[in-house]
Structure formats: C-alpha cells, structure tokens
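Memo to structure team: turn this sequence into structure tokens by end of day. - J.P.
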Amino acid sequence: MRAPAQLLSKETLERLERLTIRWRQSFQGRIGGDIVSRYAGVGHEFLDHRHFQQGDDMRAVNWRAYMRLERLFLKLFRSEPRIPVRILIDTSESMACGGEGPATAKFSYACRLAAALCYVGLVRLETIVLQPFSDTLAESFRAHGGRLRYAQAAKYLSGLETGGGTAFQRPVRDYLMKYRVPGLTFVLSDFLAHGGDELPMDHLADEGHEVHLLHLAGPADREPPWRGELELREAESDAVIRITLDDDSAGEYRDAYDQFCASLERRAARSRAKYLHLSTALPLEQALFRQLAEARINAGRAMEFGRA
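Reply from structure team:
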C-alpha cells in the first residue's frame, strides 16, 4: 500500500500554525528552538547573574555592574534548545489494514499524522526526522529551517509504502546507534508484532529520549464486524486461519484487545514513556486539536500541544 498523495489540506496547515510541540524533560540541546529550557546559557530572556570565572566569555560581563561595584558579574540568559523531533512510522503490512479502503487504513492515518507533527515542528524551527521502520529501519528524511521544507517532507511521506513484518528489537537497537543525541521520539504504530516482540521502551528512556507512543487502530481492530465461518489471512505472513466467530467469541476478542492496550500503557508508564490510543475513525483534526492537546497521564501530558 502506498501513502496518500494529498496528506493535509491548506485549511489544516493554517490551523497547525497556531500549535507547538512541547516536551516534559529538559535537554541540553542546540540553541535556537522555541521552548525554554531549564538550563542557563545563551539566549534572549535574562535569567540571573553569577560571579565571573576564569575562561568565561568577556562579552557576557555586566559592565554597568562593574562600574558601580568594581566586581565582575556574568549575565545568564535562558537557553532555547533546538530539540530533535523524530517520528518513527510503522510501515509493516499490518498498517495497510484497519479501514474500509486505502484512504482509511492505519498507514494513511499515520502518514497524515506524521505530516502534521512535522509541519508544527518545522514552523517552530525544530529539527525533524521522519524515520520509517518495519523489521528494520528504512532510509530516513531530515528537515529543519522552517515551513518551506514541508513540501519536501510531504513528498517524502507520500512516497512511502507498506511491506514486511513488524519487529521492534532490531529497529530500536539501530535507532539508538543512528541517533545518539537524545530528543523527542514519536512512535506511530499499531504495535502488532509476531512472537511477543515488544517495543523496548526502557532502552530508549535510558538513553535520554522522551518517548510518546501513538497507538493507531482501525475500528475492526477492537470490534470485528464479521460473524460465522471465516477464513482470515494474516497480513504480514500470509498465513491463513479458519475460525468461527459469534457474539461470545467476539466479546472475548474485545476483552483481549483491551488487555493488550492496557499492557502497552503500563509498560509505557514503567519506562517513563507516554501512551495514547487513537482510532482511525476519529477525524484527524479532532485527534490533533482535541485528543493530543487534552490527553493527560498522571501529572503530565501524554502529548502537549500548546498555542503559540
């Protein structure tokens, strides 16, 4: 399955101009981002003074204070770190399911959601990385420098295709090797993998990444609409199974799916990650301007969008 050619409307992009991506933890990143860090450094907002020490930048000395007190003081400002925002997009074949057609599949929804996150970050001059994965990492796209780079990012996303199976251990290992500087990590996936292969979120958190899991699911993922004698084909392995599905077994399936989602949320909490379940039946703008902006877990926000 190929990503949709048209990802976001002009009206949606105009609304996204008013949003910004925020993070919870402090990063000692590069200067120039939109979010104020807790660390002192070079910036525009005055923070405090401290005594001058050998090796400090003479340009930061408060010479007016020196003229009055005959002592050297260094001016400190709040630094604004440019934090890498990396968006991992699941391109496994299971993402091609979940809707009544390609336009409503989980993969289409993931690409449109990734485009929205990318645009918001570019408007705020963040460094954006789009990183597809299935059982391995695919070639990524990197952009920074403002909204003018969005067209290239959208073209890249529209060229993505589904294929292969889902695995997490190897892609996460390669991700940590490839991106050694911590940043904000979004994972857009249905989290359906073979053999109990679970996303090792603790590895990401231990390396300093702030992780947000966006669990995308189609309506049939939780509520199978079929009944009777069924022949089902597994999307990633082509295995065929034959089952009989009635209301009772559909209820058992629904309970198992709810337990699966709850286990993802518990594992995310243990690893200091944030988790949000999103149905592809939910209009994208509602997900962006309501679900993502209002979702809170414990004392913090699962995903914080703020108005500029």
